[in-house]
Design brief:
Number of domains of chain A: 1
CATH superfamily of chain A: Glutaconate Coenzyme A-transferase
Strand content of chain A: 25-35%
Largest sheet of chain B: 10 strands, mixed
Family (chain A): Belongs to the 3-oxoacid CoA-transferase subunit A family.
Low-confidence stretches of chain B: 1-7
CATH class of chain A: Alpha Beta
Protein name (chain A): 3-oxoadipate CoA-transferase
CATH topology of chain A: Glutaconate Coenzyme A-transferase
GO molecular function, one term (chain A): CoA-transferase activity
Oligomer: heterodimer
Largest interface: A-B, 57 and 45 residues
Mean pLDDT of chain B: 94
CATH topology of chain B: Glutaconate Coenzyme A-transferase
Radius of gyration of chain A: 18 Å
Number of helices of chain A: 7
Largest sheet of chain A: 8 strands, parallel
CATH architecture of chain A: 3-Layer(aba) Sandwich
Distance between the termini of chain A: 39 Å
Strand order of the largest sheet of chain A: 1-14-12-9-2-3-4-5
Shape of chain B: globular
Structural class of chain A: alpha/beta
Order of helices and strands of chain B: HEEEEHEEEHEEEEEHE
Keywords (chain A): Transferase
Distance between the termini of chain B: 25 Å
Number of helices of chain B: 4
Organism (chain A): Nocardioides gansuensis
Structural class of chain B: alpha/beta
Number of domains of chain B: 1
Number of strands of chain B: 13
Chain lengths: 234, 224
Amino acid sequence: MSRVIIVDDAAEAVADTPDGAVVLIGGFGSAGQPVELIEGLIESGAKDLTVVSNNAGNGDHGLAALIREGRVRRMICSFPRQSDSWCFDEKYRAGELELELVPQGNLAERIRAAGAGIGAFFTPTGYGTPLAEGKETREIDGRGHVLEYALAGDLALVAAHRADELGNLVYRKTARNFGPIMAAAATTTVVQVDEVVAVGSIDPEHVVTPCVYVDRVVPVTRTLAPTVAAGVAR
Amino acid sequence: MTTTSSTSALPTGIDRDALARQVAADIPAGSFVNLGIGLPTKVANFLAPDSGVMLHTENGMLGMGPEARAEEVDPDLVNAGKVAVSELPGASYFHHADSFAMMRGGHLDICVLGAYQVSARGDLANWHTGRPDDIPAVGGAMDLAIGARQTFVMMNLLSRDGRAKLVPECTYPLTGLQCVSRVYTDLAVFLIEPEGVVVRDLFGIEYDDLTALVDVPLVDGTGR
């Protein structure tokens, strides 16, 4: 893994994304969603994307805008339907977008497995439900388990709070969510941060994502979604 | 056994706050608890401040505090329903795979979930109506249902059309098999036990009237 590159422009940081790429996008609703990097991805023109993200966009910005622009062919997520997921709802109902629904813990563990070199795993989550239909099962310690495969990305877009110049990352509160596991699970990981600090400024004990997982860091000034600022996003 | 129409008024039972108070009273001090979106969130309002109950939220936090007041709203600090919340002293943050490992690994004592239906065996249906025009969304429901040591359900006993939601077999798509241990409803508290479905408490209804509403064999445990 080559050393991290600090890129000032979000669009430049994701400009080489090919059509058809599998893109892991961090965030839980708007918390930790790398909105500026997604806007850069829209600018790049990449299309036919498979996007892996917990939700399927909120309001009209970020992931919602990527979907509205028709760039996403397939969405792998746990909770697409929300009060403000109208961009997704419209494309889904029009049949312009495929949905693979995955229980949230299986989604997280599949991503973690990809970054950890684990090909697949058996989990009790989902056993006996419609979301396990057609999947291999096994009884382990008297309990039904379902085989779930690792889920890797060509590109991960992650929002962290702070990076040092080597790409060591610290997150903020519940905006951490999928960031650390997605950073590890993609061929190329691009991270937007509120600030870049000198090497040595982050206590090594506090580093959450070590720099080995990070390829590009983009300092951004965050624009908050109005729904979040008003505290009414549900 | 099922009565879907009656000339007499349906029993009213207890309201949502009183139901939340019932659940809160049954959560042992010091428990690690996850409260689902919707009605279960209300349980937090009735936990005694000195109970030491620590709330887990699936999006990577232990020690979650109450909903944030306007001036405290932080877009980086939300609960599973994406509502801005606060943090309590002793809180911790962790990534999503750890958060669900915590659940699946049996480290949470109790989770409280809403439901469309619960079967007499404790099967749970709470994520999808199954209607073809509905966009399905599962979130963490399946992980929570089978992960926590005990899964409590909170719901109205009867649907809007008067049918009991405690059923012999779920007809809605399943969330998990044999995972529910207690069902708190506006009319009664049910314990799902090896001997069957035990009625622990009644709220404004006689036992015989309850058995007429529910198409599941019941055991009267109200005198225990």
